[in-house]
Design goal:
heterodimer; A: 70 residues; mainly alpha; F1FO ATP Synthase; 3 helices; 89% helix; B: alpha+beta; Alpha-Beta Plaits; six-stranded antiparallel β-sheet; 18 helices; 60% helix
């Protein structure tokens, strides 16, 4: 039972942060593509902006790993 | 590395200015500043003569014509121009040739348009005649007879019959009319009468306001069958001519597109020269040019000017006032192998003048991070093959840079694959090949893997902070230096704490760790001013977040190894060996594709976001020398 709850907690940690990341990236990505169409030289900045929210899911992964390794 | 730049002033007699600008253009080693924007240049900007302005307008017009032709020709031929030295050609020659091509094209396009318009109207006639032809009486085929045709609404049939009676009276009974229903409510009315009565019948029809189906003059009074035959022949001829025109246009496009590409560059070079004139300063008899060039080119540049102009033109290195230091153009020079990474850095921003150029560090870290994430001997070999094969086809541009990075990344993937004992995932393990370091798919190795990723992050960020401290020291930016120093000290304190808590360091380091961490936070707080007491710890937590961000190295690696494991296990579960291998190959192929894309983006992100944030300001303008887009062949005597 305890293992199942731990697995569920790890799962929630990953799913929640992955959803948050994807929601942020959806908004940033579509705006970024629009900006790139007008100013292709912004590619570096856009990559950064799109990549920034990924830290969320990585932190989710870290939390999940800590839960599982308990 | 960032090249040292020298600021120069070129001064001379105005008579030599055109020759000097041509020489500077040819040499292409100096970036020319606009005297209007230089605070220490007290000289009026050069004003173009009326003659020069007219020439400038002509060149602009010529470029517009060339652009129009190029756009049109690109759709007609696959020929493209190659930028190579060409025989000297002046603008008048170019203009004559462009006018010649334009007039040819205009003639062919006009003819094509006329033929297409004809075909549209012919198709309408053809449609009507096809309806009428089957109901035409035999008498209409007699050569002495003329035919008039009309399609009328069935409600008008009675009116048409009355008209036919009147026409019979008018032609003394020689008018024959056929009225046949051809569609739902449409009737075809065909009148046949002797050819000599055409004008009388025509006048009558006009007076009675009957709308006839009027064919072009040459078919007007032919019988319907003859008109149909002639129209079909004409349509076929028009199609032939259209094909011929298209072939001629393609030939012209293939012949002239490469030339036009070259002439476009010649004209743009001329436009650049006019633009440079406007950046020059002048007095009544002299001119003055301010510019930048790499310091190592200064002596050879002075020699070239002296050889060409003697004492009439002089070059002097001048000091760089504080006000314009921020506008020093940045030239980066790196070994060929580092060039792709230099472009990755420029994609983010051109570094500041005087800063450390991070290209070399990116060239070291980026492929290693890629290898750590992908880490599989089999995948590495496939990636290397892809990079080598595609690299032969793509020689320049961003894709070529990525392929060069992938080559090195693939080699590191093989290296880490050996360390992790991964050969297409767990295939090596099944064949008895053991890892040199650790097996990432084993649960007990996940923790060491996370520690490895965080350690890599700490090392990478420490390098970034040290460069940041150095950059701040060079720029005498006190606050930046304190901020980065505080972070560095705090991080060292954190390492002491973590080391002693995990028993890697002696217990005494706990106290030292707290003290060093506190000192770091204080230094960081000082750099942030009065709010530093609150913002300092927040900034430091951000730094820890950056370090944790390196966990993606472990996360992506785990995702890759487990997908590879799934490929092998799923392949093994299928009864048929062929289908099993096919499934495994498909999943491995998917994993390799993801293994190329994801680690590339993630390792680039770690450079841009976590590493660069510690030291990289960027945003300086790159060195853009006044150079020719295309060179003329030098005559050998």
């Amino acid at each position: 039972m305890e293992t199942a709850i731990m697995a569920l907690a790890a799962c929630i940690s990953i799913v929640g942060t992955a959803l948050a990341t994807s929601m942020a990236q959806r908004a940033i990505g579509s705006a970024g593509v629009g900006a790139l169409a007008e100013k292709p030289e912004l590619v570096g900045s856009i990559i950064i902006l799109v990549a920034l929210p990924e830290t969320l899911v990585i932190l989710g992964f870290a939390v999940a790993a800590i839960i599982l390794m308990g | 590395m960032i090249v040292d730049m020298a600021r120069v002033q070129i001064w001379g007699l105005k008579d030599h200015l055109p020759d000097l600008i041509a020489l500077l253009h040819e040499e292409g080693c100096i970036q020319i500043d606009d005297v209007g924007n230089i605070p220490d240049a007290v000289i009026q900007p050069f004003s173009l003569s009326q003659e020069m302005r007219e020439e400038q307008e002509e060149v602009d017009l010529l470029i517009a014509n060339i652009n129009g032709l190029i756009e049109m020709f690109k759709g007609l031929t696959k020929e493209r121009f190659k930028n190579h030295a060409i025989e000297p050609i002046d603008l008048f020659e170019i203009k004559d040739k462009v006018d010649d091509v334009t007039s040819k094209i205009q003639y062919l396009n006009n003819r094509k348009k006329a033929l297409q318009d004809e075909l549209i109207s012919f198709s309408k006639y053809l449609e009507m005649l096809k309806i009428i032809a089957p109901v035409c009486p035999e008498t209409s085929k007699d050569s002495g007879n003329a035919t008039i045709r009309a399609l009328v609404h069935s409600s008008q049939t009675r009116t048409m019959n009355l008209l036919a009676q009147q026409l019979k009276l008018l032609t003394h009974g020689k008018f024959e009319m056929v009225n046949v229903k051809v569609g739902g409510e449409t009737n075809a009315v065909i009148g046949i009468f002797p050819l000599e009565l055409v004008s009388q019948v025509e006048t009558f029809m006009r007076n009675e306001k009957v709308t006839q189906l009027l064919l072009p003059e040459e078919y007007a009074y032919l019988s319907t069958d003859e008109a149909l035959d002639n129209l079909n022949r004409k349509i076929a001829l028009n199609h032939d001519e259209l094909r011929d025109i298209d072939a001629r246009l393609e030939r012209i496009a293939a012949e002239w597109l490469p030339q036009l590409g070259v002439w476009q560059l010649v004209c743009k070079d001329k436009v650049d020269e006019f633009a440079v004139y406007e950046k020059v300063g002048e007095t009544d008899y002299t001119f003055s040019i301010f510019g930048w060039l790499p310091e190592h080119d200064l002596n050879s540049f002075g020699d070239i000017i002296e050889q060409n102009f003697g004492e009439a033109v002089s070059v002097t290195e001048i000091e760089v006032p504080k006000k314009i230091r921020a506008s020093i153009p940045v030239e980066i020079k790196n070994p060929k192998a580092v060039k792709p990474y230099e472009n990755f850095v420029k994609m983010r921003a051109t570094p500041d003048y005087g800063d450390v150029d991070p290209s070399m560090l990116v060239a070291i870290f980026m492929p290693i991070f890629f290898g750590m994430m992908a880490g599989d001997v089999g995948y590495g070999i496939v990636m290397l093959a892809i990079a080598l094969l595609l690299g032969k086809k793509v020689k320049s541009g961003m894709v070529a840079d990525i392929l060069k990075f992938l080559r090195l990344g693939a080699i590191w993937t093989i290296v880490f694959g050996v360390l992790f004992g991964e050969y297409f995932g767990t295939l090596g393990e099944k064949l008895g090949i053991l890892p040199l370091w650790m097996n990432r798919s084993e649960p007990e190795n996940i923790f060491p893997l996370l520690i490895m990723a965080i350690s890599v992050g700490v090392g990478h960020i420490i390098v970034g902070l040290l460069i940041g401290i150095w950059n701040a020291f060079i720029h005498k930016a006190r606050n930046h230096m304190l901020e980065r120093l505080g972070m560095f000290i705090g991080l060292v304190g954190l390492i002491f704490l973590a080391g002693s808590l995990t028993k890697y360091l002696p217990g005494g380091f706990i106290m030292a760790g707290w003290v060093v961490l506190a000192v770091g936070l204080i230094v960081l707080g000082i750099s942030l001013g009065t709010t530093g007491i609150f913002l300092g710890p927040i900034e430091f937590v951000g730094l820890i977040g950056s370090i944790l961000s390196y966990l993606r190295i472990a996360a992506l690696g785990l995702a890759s190894v487990f997908l590879a494991k799934v490929a092998n296990d799923l392949g093994g579960m299928v009864g048929s060996a062929v289908i099993g291998v096919l499934i495994a190959v498909l999943i491995h192929a998917l994993n390799i594709m993801m293994g190329i894309l994801s680690p590339t983006i993630q390792s680039l992100r770690l450079q841009y976001v976590e590493f660069f944030r510690r030291f990289f300001e960027g945003g300086h303008s790159p060195f853009t020398p006044f150079h020719k887009r295309i060179h003329f062949e030098k005559k050998v005597h």
